[in-house]
Structure to design on (575 residues):
């Protein structure tokens, strides 16, 4: 079985003074979250699309889906967690409570604020995960990345050819992800900004799917301006 | 829903843009194999008049292609079904005029965006399921075969019954397809192909005779002619057809020319010749192609030989390279495996 988890748990603290979490801001004619859910709703292989949202926005999220998405039978809205990986684990708990999954069952996790994801990227995530067990969507780094461990000084400049910028979806075999997560101590859990790191910390392979430079994450007010501009340009 | 569309912005320059497609359309499909047509090349190379380029670009190119069903709100297909796209998109109907020639009809890659996009929405009658045994790469250019069928059907309706010798001018893709279909549909007729390039003519192993246009035997005459040359060369071809045609022959014009063509009207009048043009096909022509290829799979094997290159397209750079490579080929079809 294949599931999608749309991670809309963020509170939008980096979005300046805007009170609404960024996934509910309007892009073009619809909330960002709806654009993102639409991309997943046309993919036939999903048993369920699980939208994880802050507790205070559960009803609002359900209302939006009802309003904008005609065929929403396979979409469910549940509460997200405090941290990104708590949110993914909430999705896995929901899956285990409601479905009989096996070791080949897959979860495709995606940021709700990346509405420009393409069908090709989602499809390749599913294909790569079926074959390799875990995959991450990336694009080659274009800027030089500088590492600094202390004192505002450069400690290393890693070779750019080996560096990629992580995007989403990130896709995993569900049982394996849950098992590996349990292996990690609480200290490391708190430092996890990325679900793929659960695999990396356990010395497990994660394969790369080619992302797209326009699969941007709408994090800052500037990103929303960019997203609005590229959409308005043609619509 | 946000959709990525890859448009030709100006000659030789593709650009990615975003449009919205209705998630509740009858059908949402994803292109899988596309094929470059001469018409696409004329836009890409900037060979159309500048007023036309200004009017039409930016526009996504390509009107020959197949894809798979992603979402079907019409419940006539299954997700994953391989389907062929019909590029003509009627907005009106007419009692007398076929919708592929109505001015109000839209056409992919000409009056609206072509197939180079992440997803495409269709009305349910604008796609047809491909039989499971069809080669997908070859199916990418069945639109061209449907135009040939459309022309041959028109010929059947208009031409008199003496069809002993049928002459096809042009040793390119269209000449190949038209002569291949003529040989199958009129097995008792002698099919003769006239071309300029001996290398190309050698590929027409299924016809009765081939001649270089400057080495035609004296006294050779045809009952009906098919012009598949196009461009500036079509003038010479059409006048040669007029010269070699028996009285009351029909002459089917398939070739596109950007230039006004001067032809020998005196001889047309004297012989009572009938000219007609063919450029676009409709749903029934696609159905007929599928039925014909199902009944005669050997046609598919000949069509397979037309493919000169299958290029995987994962980026705009790949798309540009595909158009550049295609332009260098004097014969054959470039097929794009759409992976962008």
């Amino acid at each position: 079985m294949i599931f999608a988890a749309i991670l809309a748990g963020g509170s939008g603290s980096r979005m300046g003074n805007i009170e609404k979490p960024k996934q509910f801001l309007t892009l073009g004619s619809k909330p960002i979250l709806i654009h993102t859910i639409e991309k997943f709703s046309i993919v036939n292989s999903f048993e369920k699309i699980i939208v994880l949202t802050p507790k205070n926005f559960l009803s609002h999220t359900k209302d939006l889906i009802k309003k904008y998405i005609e065929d929403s039978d396979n979409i469910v809205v549940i509460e997200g967690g405090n941290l990104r990986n708590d949110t993914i684990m909430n999705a896995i708990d929901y899956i285990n409570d409601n479905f009989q999954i096996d070791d080949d069952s897959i979860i495709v996790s995606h940021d709700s604020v990346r509405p420009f994801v393409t069908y090709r990227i989602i499809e390749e995530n599913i294909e790569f995960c079926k074959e390799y067990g875990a995959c991450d969507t990336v694009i080659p780094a274009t800027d030089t990345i500088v590492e600094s461990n202390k004192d505002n000084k450069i400690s290393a400049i890693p070779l750019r050819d080996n560096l990629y910028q992580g995007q989403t979806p990130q896709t995993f075999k569900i049982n394996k992800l849950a098992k590996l997560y349990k292996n990690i101590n609480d200290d490391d859990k708190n430092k996890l900004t990325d679900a793929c790191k659960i695999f990396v910390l356990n010395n497990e392979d994660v394969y790369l799917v080619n992302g797209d430079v326009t699969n941007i994450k709408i994090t800052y007010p500037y990103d929303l301006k960019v997203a609005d501009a590229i959409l308005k340009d043609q619509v | 829903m946000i959709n990525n569309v890859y448009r030709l912005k100006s000659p030789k320059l593709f650009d990615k843009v975003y449009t919205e497609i209705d998630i509740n359309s009858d059908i949402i499909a994803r292109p899988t194999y596309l094929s470059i047509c001469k018409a696409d090349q004329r836009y890409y190379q900037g060979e159309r008049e500048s007023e036309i380029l200004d009017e039409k670009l930016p526009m996504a190119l390509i009107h020959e292609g197949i894809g798979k069903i992603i979402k079907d709100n019409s419940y006539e297909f299954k997700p994953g079904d391989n389907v062929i796209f019909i590029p003509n998109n009627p907005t009106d109907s007419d009692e007398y005029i076929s919708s592929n020639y109505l001015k109000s009809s839209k056409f992919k890659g000409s009056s609206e965006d072509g197939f180079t996009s992440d997803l495409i929405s269709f009305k349910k009658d604008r796609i047809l399921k491909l039989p499971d045994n069809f080669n997908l790469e070859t199916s990418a250019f069945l639109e061209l075969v449907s135009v040939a069928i459309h022309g041959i059907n028109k010929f059947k309706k208009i031409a008199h019954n003496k069809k002993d010798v049928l002459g096809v001018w042009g040793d390119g893709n269209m000449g190949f397809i038209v002569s291949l279909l003529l040989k199958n549909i009129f097995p008792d007729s002698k099919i003769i192909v006239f071309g300029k390039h001996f290398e190309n003519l050698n590929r027409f192993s299924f016809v009765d005779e081939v001649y270089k246009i400057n080495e035609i035997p004296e006294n050779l005459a045809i009952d009906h002619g098919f012009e598949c040359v196009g461009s500036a060369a079509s003038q010479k071809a059409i006048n040669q057809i007029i010269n070699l045609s028996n009285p009351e022959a029909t002459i089917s014009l398939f070739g596109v020319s950007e230039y006004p063509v001067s032809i020998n009207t005196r001889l047309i009048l004297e012989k009572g010749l009938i000219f007609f043009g063919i450029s676009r096909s409709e749903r029934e022509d696609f159905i007929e192609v599928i039925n014909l290829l199902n009944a005669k799979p050997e046609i598919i094997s000949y069509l397979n030989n037309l493919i000169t290159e299958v290029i995987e397209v994962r980026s705009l750079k790949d798309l540009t390279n595909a158009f550049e490579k295609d332009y260098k080929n004097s014969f054959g079809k470039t097929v794009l495996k759409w992976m962008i």
